[in-house]
């Protein structure tokens, strides 16, 4: 290139606004041999397998899968003759069929190397706790074996060609089927290396030595009775359901890719893989839901096939076919029978674990920026929240706080007194989070690097040396988190002795754990890097960040002597991450489309177990106009994880920097969150027990209402609140569909709106449309403090929205907000029921569940009654027969709000007690 | 019951602290109420301040929010919008958000915001108050002195402005006369030129005729001698008109320039030579890179965290980076040619280079910031060149020299012409007047002292008029051949006067622009016009020139942080905007907050947000009398509320 031309190009570059996603840097399906191979196959085009030697042992089924027909011409045959595969089927409560297919390692021609099975994702005790002992199998006809599944389902194995179906036992209606299109393909391990692209692979400047040759697996799964499928995060999309990726009318779409990547300026609408992967898909139709989970951490590509994909003349209806392809690993898959979505979630989480109960402070608002530069900056921002009366709970420090991106250290010039700084925050009940990434600076004077090198704790490259990649600190190595011993070692680093300058109010942020490797293929680790147990990186890639998150979380648990719940935010995630902490949707952008995409993204995460998640409020890249920022706060206040964050190059974005009006609007949005903290915390409890998400798709609450099935713009927070985002600048009105037959109360003015229809709602700058479902009770705290810490003794407000039969119910969970004593009974779970003109509070928690107790002195200062006729004037409290006033009051205590709802004034009953308030 | 408990606790607390002056214990009725509001709450039925409803005395501070604006709960946390007043005897009273009441954190120095017994706040008002009073006293002293300085400055400014206004009106008159003279001279000159031309023509004809004659009479030697005698003066005469033409053109050019369109001409020149410039630029590429490296070295030396910084910013700095950038897919997205190139070139990168390249996407701005000067600048400029090669010939050379030289330096010694010639490119056309105003008044006066000085009986313009008159009179158009000495005198006179005119016009322009400036309500910022304020922070020197621009200088390179925009927040802030572009960020800008101080002093330069700078300038101009009175009153208030038991130590 001539110097002149290069100059021209530089010039062009610098005048062009920063462009987004670099498509050519990432592989598409055609550039990914296993995906290309699998995707070009037509149904039943490959030699089929048949089931033989099926037997029942130990309550589970095992069998061999062998080729149905002998192989044809020898010239077409692979270098190694095919071996039989081992098939296992087992059943778990509360409703899962497990399918395992692996090599037969007892075959003498099998290589000594074993395929990778992802460890430590399934709960260790699932076999003890959930495995059902199958007493027998039956055979309706020859070549067909069936057996019992819970909830009135059964599994059917067709022997030749091999196929599995889950169906209703009563009417034999299929629910899920495996290999019904004959696309199951299992590339067996080979010892002879052949030529061609199947072995060594090149992508851009990178070569994957692929010493073990092709070993991919693909198969088809069909969801019957399904209108839509959902799940398999993480992808950015404004659509809640998964759009078809192949079939009639779909020309250029890629399959959904699950491959954890650090994507610079990702698009808001793309099937390409982002930071995390959960290979779990749910289907939903008006009659039922079902789910499918493939425990496999290698790169995965999933096609959602449009009706008619196999036969355009004859499109199937009432069924969604999917094609699953993975580069390596085994088949270890779970079919969840449902029949309701809540059941599917419970079935999935009974295996991968329910979400952890977070620290109470973590449910508040988090203030982050890359970077708060120094202690003075931290103090100034902290003081800014105080002087503008905006509550917040956590201040975050990004990479620049460290001594040269050496984690667990501080930049001594900028942060000479980290302990003092944390104490100043802690004195106001606030917490701090610092970043700890997995890339260790290769610097011999860095103690952590020295230790990891000496102990041989780093991931190795293909040649066996410590893998050396480029990340923030420059040349870096990555601890091998697959190894439990290394995770143990890593977790020790969080102790107060090891992490100098840390205090008990300091928590953790794991970023870049996909892992991000700037000079690696697709900005990640080469697939031929080698982990503990001779596992190739390709086999566990999607779980690397998970193990890292796990070790960090365990570090905080240990630091607190198992008395303090950890808080670790991670960017990468995998199935099971919900047990270790929160995640966020990574480096989004400050534009309206990303605001809009955040809702389907977070709902999808919630549907796949990741209930504690959020998107960067304001957008990470770029500068949001004030209106967008305000709308983002109004929406973000309902994200399970509520954090404002911004890129290094952006303008300062603290809430008070956009004029008085916008400051007030943001304050109001944050106040909405803080007033709902009791409700949110109760929802977190529900998530941690039943796995129900906090942010829910409407159809989770209204499973029969087809209108809601693909609504990605509105969502439910728990069972009671419906929130409709505003996704455009200058929006004057939005159409809100309110599902169900009961009415909804608009929380801006208490007006009732009819359910089952769409309403055109005028949009105001001060809020986004939020409704409370008739028949629910929401506990709130309407006093605002610096942080949630100071709210602990504040009184409650109950907001009761009566349904058509003038009744409602709700609950409130509380505990100490930080320890594990709730596991031993130290919590309070109240149940409120309103009916027959009286409100009754009873204990919902099991009595004598443990030896520890929790008590609260909090009162209820106000009960707001929506939907009660306006003539009530008095109420009487029992026990005690105390009379209290009922008057008209506002829905929220904001200047200018008008009295719209009957309010029981100062009942002052204890939240901990049983009582009845009777309306006279 | 509950309330009783609360108050007995409060009493206990107060007894514990034992402040005799707090004999009047606040009751529920007065809790959190400011003295001005006491009477408001006297009534039996009280209105919410926002008029929304009424409440009874029982509902005052009863821990239940009746007024959404908080009127009924000044002393509790029940209303989110409420305010709590603490008396803070011994210190200044404080109004805090209701959210601070009984939240377990002591906010009022008298501890009155925490009365529920959950925490014990000791009364620190006297100690804190003493510190505050001492600080306030110092501040008052500064203001007192500052007010005097400020008043003097204002007087000076008013005189200076009056003088300048006077000068301006005089100059305007002079301009009119001078323009008249110049146009007369021009006319005269043109007539002379015409006459000369005619004469020349005549001469040529004559010459021709003579030549023919000479040929005819070739044989006659006597005549041939005569002919040769006539040729000699003709040569001399022939030369003269050419000079005159040149002079005329110069004169015209000066006029054009005076009307502020000089750039057109430069642009034309530059268009002609853009090819040549490109050649130079590409030839000099290596030089650029070297100087980047030099900068990197400086970084290393100056920074306490040299290694990390380099690590962070390495990405865009390496020499290879030039080609990296050229092949980065930023361009690829819009440029398919570049896209092809990128894969080829990233393939050629070492692992480390690739790592740096990818890292620089997130930190690009950061690395760019380090080397934007000169690199970013140079690239920007070359980009402009590519788009429209319309800059003057000297541009690139001046750019190169700028790198070694003080590029944006306030060029105090340079004359206007030099200034324009050297650095035009830094100031786009619309900033031409800014450039002009860079010349301080003193310089102008020096340059023009002889002309402007009005010593002697006649004003200089009168003298000139006389001179011109003489020139006109002495020149005889009817005399042929044209008197050479007279003709050149007219031309010289014309040249002198038009140059003088252009100087006057430029001065007028300068004064007009200056007087149009907003120097504050009392013209207190007048003296800022010709001053710059500097502050050194590590390796950077920040320079703020009010009404002009703000720069960040590092060694010989300079980054413009903003051009003068305006005063903001009623003269409390000076805003500079549209500075040099930031990679992936906004154009740089700077806000200088003004504060009362005895000297003009720039401090606390900071970049709280990428490419948005702030600084504080202490100046007597901010020491206003009203504020002084306010502070004095505050001190009186603070001192009067001191408890009897405490004497000032």
UniProtKB/TrEMBL annotation, chain A:
The keyword Signal applies. Keywords: Endoplasmic reticulum, Glycoprotein, Glycosidase, Hydrolase, Signal. PANTHER family: ALPHA-GLUCOSIDASE, BCDNA.GH04962. Residues 1-20 form the signal peptide. Pathway: Glycan metabolism; N-glycan metabolism. GO terms for molecular function: alpha-glucosidase activity; carbohydrate binding. InterPro entries: DUF5110, Gal_mutarotase_sf_dom, GH, Glyco_hydro_31_C, Glyco_hydro_31_N_dom, Glyco_hydro_31_TIM, Glyco_hydro_b. It comes from Rhynchospora tenuis. It holds the Pfam family Glyco_hydro_31_2nd. GO terms for cellular component: endoplasmic reticulum. The keyword Signal applies. Residues 87-303 form the Glycoside hydrolase family 31 N-terminal domain. Its main location: endoplasmic reticulum. Residues 691-778 form the Glycosyl hydrolase family 31 C-terminal domain. GO terms for biological process: carbohydrate metabolic process; N-glycan processing. Belongs to the glycosyl hydrolase 31 family. Residues 355-683 form the Glycoside hydrolase family 31 TIM barrel domain. It is found in: Endoplasmic reticulum. Residues 797-853 form the DUF5110 domain. This is Probable glucan 1,3-alpha-glucosidase.
Automatic annotation (TrEMBL), chain B:
CDD domains: LDLa (cd00112). SUPFAM superfamilies: Mannose 6-phosphate receptor domain. Gene3D superfamilies: Low-density Lipoprotein Receptor, Mannose-6-phosphate receptor binding domain. The keyword Endoplasmic reticulum applies. InterPro entries: Gtb1-like, LDL_receptor-like_sf, LDrepeatLR_classA_rpt, Man6P_isomerase_rcpt-bd_dom_sf, MRH_dom, PRKCSH, PRKCSH_N. Residues 214-451 are annotated as: Disordered. PROSITE patterns: MRH. Residues 384-395, 413-428 have a biased composition (Acidic residues). Residues 1-23 form the signal peptide. Residues 530-625 form the MRH domain. It comes from the Eukaryota. This is Glucosidase 2 subunit beta. It comes from Rhynchospora tenuis.
């Amino acid at each position: 290139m001539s110097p002149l031309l290069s100059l021209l190009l530089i010039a062009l570059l610098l005048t062009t606004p920063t462009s987004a996603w670099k498509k050519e840097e990432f592989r598409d399906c055609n550039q990914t041999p296993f995906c290309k191979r699998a995707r070009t196959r037509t149904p039943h085009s490959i030699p089929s397998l048949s089931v033989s030697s099926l037997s029942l042992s130990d309550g589970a089924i095992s069998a061999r899968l062998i080729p149905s027909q002998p192989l044809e011409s020898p010239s077409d045959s692979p270098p190694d003759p095919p071996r039989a595969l081992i098939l296992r089927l087992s059943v778990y409560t509360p409703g899962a069929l497990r399918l395992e297919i692996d090599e037969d390692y007892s075959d003498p021609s099998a290589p000594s190397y074993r395929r990778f099975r992802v460890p430590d994702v399934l709960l260790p005790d699932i076999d003890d706790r959930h495995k059902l002992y199958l007493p027998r199998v039956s055979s309706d006809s020859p070549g067909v074996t069936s057996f019992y599944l819970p909830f009135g389902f059964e599994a059917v194995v067709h022997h030749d060609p091999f196929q599995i179906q889950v169906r209703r036992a009563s009417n034999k209606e299929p629910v899920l089927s495996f290999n019904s299109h004959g696309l199951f393909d299992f590339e067996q391990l080979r010892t002879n290396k052949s030529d061609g692209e199947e072995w060594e692979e090149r992508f851009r400047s990178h070569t994957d030595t692929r010493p073990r040759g092709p070993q991919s697996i693909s198969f088809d799964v069909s969801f019957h009775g399904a209108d839509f499928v959902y799940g398999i995060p993480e992808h950015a999309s404004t659509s809640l359901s998964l759009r078809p990726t192949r079939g009639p009318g779909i020309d250029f779409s890629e399959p959904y890719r699950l491959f954890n990547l650090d994507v610079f300026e990702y698009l808001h609408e793309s099937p390409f893989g982002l930071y995390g992967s959960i290979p779990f898909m749910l289907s939903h139709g008006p009659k039922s839901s079902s789910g499918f989970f493939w425990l496999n951490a290698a790169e995965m590509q999933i096609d959602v096939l449009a009706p008619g994909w196999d036969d355009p003349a004859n499109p199937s209806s009432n069924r969604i076919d999917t094609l699953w392809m993975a580069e390596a690993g085994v088949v270890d898959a779970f079919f969840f029978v449902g029949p309701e979505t809540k059941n599917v979630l419970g079935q999935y989480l009974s295996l991968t674990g329910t979400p952890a109960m977070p620290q109470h402070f973590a449910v508040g608002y988090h203030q982050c920026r890359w970077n708060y530069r120094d202690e003075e900056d931290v103090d100034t921002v902290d003081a800014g929240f105080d002087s503008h009366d905006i509550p917040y709970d956590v201040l975050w420090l990004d990479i620049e706080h460290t001594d040269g991106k050496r984690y667990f250290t501080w930049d001594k010039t900028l942060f000479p007194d980290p302990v003092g700084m944390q104490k100043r925050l802690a004195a106001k009940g606030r917490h701090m989070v610092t970043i700890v990434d997995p890339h260790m600076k290769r610097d011999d004077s860095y103690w952590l690097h020295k230790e990891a090198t000496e102990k041989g704790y780093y991931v190795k490259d293909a040649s066996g040396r410590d893998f050396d990649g480029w990340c923030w600190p420059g040349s870096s190595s990555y601890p091998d988190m697959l190894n439990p011993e290394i995770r143990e070692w890593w977790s020790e680093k969080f102790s107060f002795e090891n992490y100098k300058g840390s205090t008990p109010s300091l928590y953790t942020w794991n970023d870049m754990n996909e892992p991000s490797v700037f000079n690696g293929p697709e900005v990640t680790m080469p697939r031929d890097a080698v982990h503990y147990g001779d596992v190739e990186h390709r086999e566990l890639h999607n779980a690397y960040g998970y193990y890292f998150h796990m070790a960090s979380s365990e570090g905080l648990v240990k630091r607190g002597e198992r008395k303090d719940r950890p808080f670790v935010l991670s960017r990468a995630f995998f199935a099971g991450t919900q047990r270790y902490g929160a995640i966020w949707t990574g480096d989004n952008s400050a534009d309206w489309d990303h605001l809009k995409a955040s809702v389907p993204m977070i709902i999808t995460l919630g549907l796949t177990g990741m209930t504690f998640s959020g998107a960067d409020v304001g957008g990470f890249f770029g500068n949001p106009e004030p209106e967008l920022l305000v709308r983002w706060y109004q929406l973000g206040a309902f994200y399970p994880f509520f954090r404002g964050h911004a890129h290094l190059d952006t303008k300062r974005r603290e809430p008070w920097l956009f004029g008085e009006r916008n400051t007030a609007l943001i304050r109001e949005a944050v106040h909405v969150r803080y007033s709902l903290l009791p409700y949110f915390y109760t929802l977190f409890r529900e998530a941690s027990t039943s796995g129900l998400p906090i942010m829910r798709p409407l159809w989770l609450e209204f499973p029969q209402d087809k209108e809601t099935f693909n609504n990605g713009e509105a969502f439910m927070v728990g069972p009671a609140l419906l929130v409709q985002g505003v996704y455009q600048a200058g929006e004057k009105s939005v159409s809100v569909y309110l599902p169900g037959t009961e009415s909804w109360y608009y929380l801006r003015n208490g007006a009732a709106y009819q359910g089952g229809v769409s309403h055109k709602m005028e949009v105001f700058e001060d809020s986004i449309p939020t409704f409370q479902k008739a028949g629910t009770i929401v506990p709130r705290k309407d006093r605002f403090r610096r942080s949630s810490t100071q709210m602990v003794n504040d009184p409650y407000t109950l907001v009761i929205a009566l349904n058509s039969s003038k009744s409602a119910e709700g609950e409130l969970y509380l505990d100490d907000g930080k320890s594990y004593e709730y596991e031993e009974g130290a919590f309070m779970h109240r149940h409120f029921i309103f009916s027959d003109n009286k409100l009754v509070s009873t204990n919902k928690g099991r009595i004598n569940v443990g030896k520890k107790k929790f008590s609260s002195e909090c009162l209820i200062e106000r009960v707001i009654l929506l939907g009660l006729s306006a003539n009530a004037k008095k109420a009487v409290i029992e026990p005690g027969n105390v009379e209290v006033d009922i008057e008209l009051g506002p829905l929220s205590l904001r200047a200018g709000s008008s009295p719209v709802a009957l309010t029981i004034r100062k009942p002052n009953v204890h939240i901990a007690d049983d009582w009845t308030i009777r309306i006279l | 019951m509950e309330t009783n408990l609360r108050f007995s606790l409060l009493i206990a607390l107060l007894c514990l602290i034992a402040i005799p002056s707090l004999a009047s214990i606040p009751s529920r009725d007065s809790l959190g109420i400011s003295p001005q509001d006491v009477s408001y709450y006297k009534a039996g039925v009280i209105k919410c301040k926002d008029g929304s409803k009424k409440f009874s005395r029982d509902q005052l501070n009863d821990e239940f929010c009746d007024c959404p604006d908080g009127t009924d709960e000044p002393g509790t946390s029940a209303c989110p919008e409420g305010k709590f007043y603490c008396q803070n005897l011994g210190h200044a009273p404080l109004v805090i958000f209701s959210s601070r009441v009984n939240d377990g954190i002591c906010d009022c120095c008298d501890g009155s915001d925490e009365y529920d017994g959950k925490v014990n706040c000791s009364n620190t008002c006297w100690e804190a108050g003493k510190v505050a009073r001492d600080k306030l006293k110092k501040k008052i002293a500064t203001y007192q002195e500052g007010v005097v300085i400020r008043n003097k400055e204002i007087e000076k400014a008013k005189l200076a402005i009056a003088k300048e206004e006077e000068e301006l009106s005089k100059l305007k008159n002079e301009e009119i006369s001078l323009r008249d003279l110049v146009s007369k001279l021009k006319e005269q000159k043109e007539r002379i030129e015409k006459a000369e031309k005619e004469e020349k023509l005549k001469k040529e004809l004559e010459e021709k005729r003579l030549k023919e004659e000479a040929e005819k009479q070739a044989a006659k030697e006597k005549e041939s001698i005569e002919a040769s005698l006539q040729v000699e003066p003709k040569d001399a005469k022939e030369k003269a008109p050419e000079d005159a033409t040149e002079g005329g053109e110069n004169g015209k050019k000066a006029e054009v320039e005076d009307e502020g369109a000089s750039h057109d001409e430069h642009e034309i020149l530059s268009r002609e030579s853009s090819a040549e410039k490109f050649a130079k630029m590409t030839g000099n590429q290596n030089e650029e890179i070297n100087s980047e490296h030099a900068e990197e070295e400086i970084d290393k030396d100056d920074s306490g965290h040299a290694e990390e910084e380099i690590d962070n910013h390495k990405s865009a700095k390496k020499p290879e980076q030039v080609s990296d950038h050229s092949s980065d897919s930023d361009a690829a997205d819009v440029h398919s040619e570049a896209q092809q190139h990128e894969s080829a070139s990233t393939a050629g990168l070492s692992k480390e280079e690739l790592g740096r390249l990818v890292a620089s996407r997130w930190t690009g701005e950061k690395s760019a910031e380090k080397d934007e000067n000169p690199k970013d600048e140079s690239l920007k400029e070359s980009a402009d060149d590519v788009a429209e090669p319309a800059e003057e010939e000297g541009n690139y050379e001046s750019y190169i020299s700028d790198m070694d030289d003080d590029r944006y330096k306030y060029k105090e010694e340079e004359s206007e012409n030099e200034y324009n010639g050297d650095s035009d490119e830094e100031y786009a056309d619309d900033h031409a007047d800014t450039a002009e105003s860079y010349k301080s008044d003193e310089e102008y006066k020096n340059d023009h002292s002889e002309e402007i000085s009005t010593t002697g009986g006649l004003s200089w313009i009168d003298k000139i008029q006389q001179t011109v008159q003489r020139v006109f009179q002495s020149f005889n158009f009817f005399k042929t051949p044209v008197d050479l000495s007279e003709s050149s005198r007219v031309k010289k006179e014309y040249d002198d006067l038009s140059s003088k005119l252009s100087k006057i016009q430029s001065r007028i322009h300068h004064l007009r622009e200056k007087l149009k400036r907003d120097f504050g309500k009392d013209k207190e910022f007048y003296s800022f016009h010709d001053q710059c304020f500097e502050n050194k922070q590590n390796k950077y020197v920040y320079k703020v020139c009010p009404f002009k621009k703000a720069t960040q200088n590092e060694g010989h390179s300079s980054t413009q942080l903003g051009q003068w925009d305006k005063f903001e927040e009623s003269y409390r802030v000076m805003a500079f905007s549209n500075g040099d572009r930031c990679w992936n960020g906004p154009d740089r800008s700077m806000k200088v907050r003004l504060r009362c101080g005895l000297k003009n002093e720039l401090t606390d330069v900071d970049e709280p947000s990428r490419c948005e700078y702030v600084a504080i300038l202490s100046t007597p101009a901010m020491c206003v009398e009203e504020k002084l009175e306010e502070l004095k009153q505050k001190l009186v208030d603070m001192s009067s509320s001191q408890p009897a038991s405490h004497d000032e130590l």
